[in-house]
Amino acid sequence: DKRVYTFWSQFIGAGIVGGAMIDSKLAAEEMVKAVVFYNKYKRFDDNYKNLKLIIDWEGIENNNIPHSKIPKTASIYNKPTSFFIIYFREIIITAIIIVSCLLLIAIFWLRSMASSKKRLKELAETDPLTGLFNRRAFMTYLHYEISRKKRYNSPVSIVIIDIDHFKRVNDLYGHDAGDEVLKTLSELLQQNCRRSDRICRWGGEEFLLLLPETTARNANILAEKLRRLLEKTKQSIPEYITSSFGIAELNDREDFSQWFERADAALYKSKSNGRNQVTVEQ
C-alpha cells in the first residue's frame, strides 16, 4: 500500500504511474501541521491519508498496467476522450435525421398502400367511363335500403333512366360521341342529386337512381327536373338528347326483383307512350 507523492509540475510530461498528488502550497501547509502535531504528541501522523488517489492514463499505458488493477475510487487524468463523447452532438443529430427519414419513408409507404387499396376499391366499385357506381357496388346499397325499409318503414324509391335512341347516336356519330353523351348524363345526375342518393350505370345507356327517404311522388319531381335539364343540355353532337324514366317506390311485401320489375314496367310505358317522359308505377 505504498503511495507516491508528487507535485503538479511533475505530472506534466511523460506521465506518472499514479499517487496522491499535491501542490507546493498544500505540501508546505501539511509540513507545518506535521511539526505542530509532533511537538504536541511526539509522533508523526499520515496527514495525506484523505488525499484521493490519482492515476495518469499515459503512465498506465506506458507501463502496461492492466485496467482491472486500477482502484475504482481513483481519478484518472489525461484519459483520451472517446469518439462518442467527442462527436456526441453530431451523432445525436445524425441519429435524429436517420430516424426522421425512416419515419417519413414509413409514412409515405403506408399512405401509398392506403391510396392503392382505395384505388383498387374504386376500380372494383365504379364504372370506368362515367365514374358512377357499377352494378355490383350498387346492389350493396339496394339491399341495405330494403332492410332499412323493413325495419323502419322509411320510404325509398328507384328511378330507371334510359337514353332515347342511343343506338342511333352510336351509328350516326360513332361510339366516342356516344361515350360523351353517357358522361354528360352522368355529370348532370351527380350535379342534381343529393349526397345520400346513389347513382349507378346499370348497363349500356341505362342508369339507376336509388333515393332513400323518398316517396314515389318526390322521385317523380326529381325525375321531371332531370328530364327537362337533359333535353336542354348541349351535347358534343349536333342534336339534343332525351331520356325516358320509370319510377317505383318499394313496398314492404316485395324483394328487389319485384321492385325492379315495377320500375322497369314504368320505363316501358314511358317508351311506349312516345319517350322523353316520366312514368310512376303504383
In words, what does this structure look like?
Helices cover 52% and strands 16% of the residues. It contains 10 helices and 9 strands. The strands form 2 sheets. The chain has a 5-stranded mixed β-sheet with strand order 6-7-5-8-9, sandwiched between helices. It has a 4-stranded mixed β-sheet with strand order 1-2-3-4. It is rod-shaped. The N and C termini lie far apart (114 Å).
Main beta sheet: 5 strands, mixed
Distance between the termini: 114 Å
Taking all residues together, what is the mean pLDDT?
84
The tally of beta strands, per DSSP, is: 9
Percent in helix: 40-55%
Category from helices, strands and their pairing: alpha/beta
Instruction: Output the helix-strand order.
Output: EHEHEHEHHHEHHEEHEHE
For the CA atoms, what is the radius of gyration?
A: 47 Å
Strand content: 15-25%
Give the low-confidence spans.
1-16
Features:
282 residues, alpha/beta, 5-stranded mixed sheet, 4-stranded mixed sheet, 9 strands, rod-shaped, disordered N terminus
